[in-house]
TrEMBL record:
The keyword Iron-sulfur does not apply. The lineage of its organism: Bacteria, Pseudomonadati, Pseudomonadota, Gammaproteobacteria, Pseudomonadales. Residues 5-284 form the Aromatic amino acid beta-eliminating lyase/threonine aldolase domain. Keywords: Lyase, Pyridoxal phosphate. It comes from the Bacteria. This is L-threonine aldolase.
Amino acid sequence: MPIIDLRSDTVTLPTPGMREAMQAAELGDDVYGEDPSVTRLETYLADKLGFAAGLFVPTGTMSNLLGLMAHCQRGDEYIVGQQAHTYKYEGGGAAVLGSIQPQPIEGEADGSLDLAKVAAAIKMDDFHFARTRLLALENTMQGKVLPLDYLAAAREFTHKHGLSLHLDGARLYNASVKLGVDPLQITRHFDSVSVCLSKGLGAPVGSVLCGSDELICKARRLRKMVGGGMRQAGLLAAAGLYALEHQVERLAQDHANAQALGEGLRALGYSVEPVQTNMVYAQVGEQANSLKSFLAERGVKLTAAPRLRMVTHLDVSADDIKHVLKGFADFKQS
Ligand SMILES: *Cc1c(COP(=O)(O)O)cnc(C)c1O
């Protein structure tokens, strides 16, 4: 039975074209700066996103960590959403490894952080307080795309308050495809951006941190410190480059599939949050566990959560969505 895995867009397997690109990759020792494929990926992405430099790292968690640590010193503070990945899902790394104090604030329904609330959280220059240094945003945020005019406002706001602005752009390309804009229109507002290659883009491993030469130079030192200096990493970078060159436009298909899934579930009577990109959130309440096992028997992998997140990706087709909806319909009847 073919498996349809809706738990995350991290589960994608490399496509045949991607495997060929990996096979053909020119390699070297990247800790010596001698892996041409890694260098090509870093330069390619930095160029496209409007930054001076890029740094290839194994995970988005490391990419965000290095970004935060390159911007902030010990005893500095960053302002971040209560539900943001860098705050909630990265093991508290910024605090543990960077001695950076997070100041979380409640996010808004559209995925943004209210700049008035951010302003109220900024601490004045006083030895009682941590030094507020950075604002971190996430885009897409739980599948929601931050409006471009909000990003412009956040940029102006951070300039005014002397803060740096970091983007956890794990799903930057879902946002740019959804808006129909060049990703540069998003990234131009930020001092640093972390992009995941291993989500909807379909690479097996890897993220890239982009920023100024100075920031990336610091991040490179930190990467070595946390054990992220990889040797013949071009094998992985080649997969990332392939993803960026061949698997960006197709994200629109994931978005269409997510729409269809959302509409189908609504037709079955589920309360479904508005779908913008590749994530569908449905309220399944106490049925979460029974639903998970019922659909598992039909080849559909779900997480068990009352607010159920389903994610579409490279390995989920429009027909798969029909199969999933049939499973939900049968569950309703059971
Ligand atoms: C997946 C993800 C990351 C990084 O996760 P890794 O598993 O460490 O690559 C960072 N931010 C967001 C929003 C993510 O979804």
